[in-house]
């Protein structure tokens, strides 16, 4: 039997986290934070004390999957932390923006805890076998498949089956699929959205602001737009590192992206906004150079295009609600046809959806009847017996 504890991201967007246990060994998959939340709701609801976690696996370095690392250390977790080299490289910048500053100072992840692996590796913790594969979301981003005793749960993390930039490796057959449901019933193909963004940027090529996460969507935007652009100071080296991980990209793209990056101008906070598109991180305007850049652009009437998730109350959300910024979704999660196709290919297994609210789950259930819509953060799913709703103990 496998016990799957839903520790964050179920019936909500953010603090994504899952724990899997076979009765002997317990592993944790991701430890994110929830932007816009406060107090305990900012962090995962741990189903057991940190001393009972045998290993922690991180899918990628976006804040809703890695931002709670310092909190776990403060709570006493001192075990191994498995991640790819690219995730480790991006981790410090993410924690600097989203971890509690005092916790980051006192409880940073320790080098001796970190265990590196490559997408495609299979890792062993006790009797649990953990398969990994490239997720198509960011360079170094992975999905996890946990197996034991003839049972398997696949946690897709964030993925993009048909990214124009990143490769995604096929998911294995499983008893339970934990699907990236961020976009719910959105049927619009990614290529169509990318064309819409390219057209918007072309209309504002004399100057516009494009807030974006440092990894993943930045390369998607660079691939989509054809006009010369600028980037915020500090972005060049991380972007070059992502482009340099050539095996993570689709064939023929690395050279084209490298040429675009080499030609990009640099912009620093306090300088006049450039007369060309400007990429700044993060995508919500909550942290990083995007926060002052959005304020400056709004004050100057400089066009702003937002292209991802906007938590309620974030600077980006407030501007979009007021009509002072445009929004076109850049597909960095699966669209409806992609999720349906994945579910069909895997033999229509039992399915949970993460990273969305109840309404979005309802939309997706109309197309994936095996999707369970009632499970929420703090509950447990059992594989090997009839699935039941069970509230987990919350550890603070």
Automatic annotation (TrEMBL):
<dbReference type="InterPro" id="IPR036866">
    <property type="entry name" value="RibonucZ/Hydroxyglut_hydro"/>
</dbReference>
<feature type="domain" description="Metallo-beta-lactamase">
    <location>
        <begin position="14"/>
        <end position="200"/>
    </location>
</feature>
<dbReference type="InterPro" id="IPR001279">
    <property type="entry name" value="Metallo-B-lactamas"/>
</dbReference>
<dbReference type="InterPro" id="IPR050698">
    <property type="entry name" value="MBL"/>
</dbReference>
<protein>
    <recommendedName>
        <fullName>Metallo-beta-lactamase domain-containing protein</fullName>
    </recommendedName>
</protein>
<dbReference type="GO" id="GO:0004521">
    <property type="term" value="F:RNA endonuclease activity"/>
</dbReference>
<dbReference type="Pfam" id="PF00753">
    <property type="entry name" value="Lactamase_B"/>
</dbReference>
């Amino acid at each position: 039997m496998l016990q799957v504890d839903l520790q964050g991201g179920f019936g909500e967007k953010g603090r994504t986290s899952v724990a899997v246990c076979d009765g002997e060994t317990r592993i944790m998959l991701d430890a994110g934070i929830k932007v816009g939340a406060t107090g305990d709701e900012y962090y995962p609801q741990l189903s057991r004390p940190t001393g009972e976690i045998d290993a922690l696996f991180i899918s990628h370095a976006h804040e809703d999957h890695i931002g709670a690392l310092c909190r776990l250390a403060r709570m006493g977790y001192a075990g191994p932390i498995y991640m790819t080299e690219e995730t480790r490289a991006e981790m410090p910048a993410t924690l600097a923006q989203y971890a509690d500053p005092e916790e980051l100072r006192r409880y940073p992840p320790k080098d001796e805890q970190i265990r590196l692996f490559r997408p495609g590796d299979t890792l062993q913790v006790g009797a649990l076998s953990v398969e990994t594969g490239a997720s198509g979301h960011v360079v170094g981003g992975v999905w996890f498949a946990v197996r034991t005793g003839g049972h398997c749960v696949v946690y897709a993390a964030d993925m993009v089956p048909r990214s124009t930039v990143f490769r995604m490796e096929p998911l294995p057959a499983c008893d339970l699929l934990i699907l990236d449901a961020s976009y719910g019933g959105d049927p619009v193909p990614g290529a169509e959205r990318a064309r819409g963004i390219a057209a918007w940027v072309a209309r504002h090529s004399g100057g516009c602001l494009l807030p974006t996460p440092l990894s993943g969507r930045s390369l998607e935007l660079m691939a989509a737009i054809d006009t010369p652009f600028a980037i915020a100071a500090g972005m060049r080296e991380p972007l070059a590192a992502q482009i340099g991980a050539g095996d993570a990209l689709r064939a023929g793209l690395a050279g084209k992206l490298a040429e675009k990056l080499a030609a990009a101008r640099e912009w620093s906070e306090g300088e006049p906004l450039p007369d060309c598109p400007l990429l700044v991180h993060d995508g919500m305007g909550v942290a990083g150079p995007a926060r002052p850049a959005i304020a400056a652009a709004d004050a100057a009437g400089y066009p702003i295009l937002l292209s991802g998730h906007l938590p309620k109350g974030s600077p980006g959300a407030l501007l979009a609600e007021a009509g002072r910024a445009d929004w076109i979704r850049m597909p960095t999660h699966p669209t409806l046809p992609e999720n349906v196709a994945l579910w069909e290919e895997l033999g229509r297994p039992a399915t949970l959806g993460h990273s969305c609210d109840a309404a979005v789950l309802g939309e997706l259930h109309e197309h994936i009847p095996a999707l369970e819509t009632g499970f929420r953060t703090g509950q447990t799913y059992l594989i090997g017996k009839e699935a039941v709703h069970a509230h987990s103990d919350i550890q603070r």
